[in-house]
Known about the structure:
The protein is mainly α. It has a domain at 83-152: DnaA, N-terminal domain (GMP Synthetase, Chain A, domain 3). The chain has eight helices and three strands; from the N terminus they run ααααααββααβ. It has helices at residues 3-11, 19-28, 30-39, 65-71, 73-92, 98-101, 121-129, 131-140; strands at 105-109, 113-118, 147-152. The chain has a three-stranded mixed beta sheet. β1 and β2 (113-118) form a beta hairpin. α4 packs across α5. It is rod-shaped, with a radius of gyration of 41 Å. It starts with a helix and ends with a strand.
Amino acid sequence: MGCKDRNRAGANKPPPSPPYLREAIEYFSLPSLAARIINGQPGAAPRPARPTRPVNSFKPAAISLQDAVERAPALARLSRLAAESAARLRAVQPALPPALRELVRPGPIDETSWCLLVPHNAAAAKLRQLTPTLLQRLQAAGHPVDAIRVRVERAR
């Protein structure tokens, strides 16, 4: 039998493996190894130690919303403007008709103008008629306002 004949004959089936090799393959195969690890059998890889949770020794101190706003310059400015706008509304509320008082909300403040927000056009028209009276009240209360703008809020 020539060299070619031997290659053809052995090409279809692998050479037999020795018994110790078959046992090693079986022992270290993934399913077998996984089963031994799960069951805690000897010869299995040791289970990794479960990490313990560190004791949370550092907890940041809780701060109030007001403190957080004061610490951030942009938020502090917005907070000041919102408080100023609410103070202006309190100054003019006695001059508003009772039915209109509940509808008017304070709006943004510019340098010398102030915006009032209302839910509909009818309230805006009445508020525009009262603008001169509201300006007088604001100036008497010490608020530097030259103009009042009235805006109708969109439905949310």
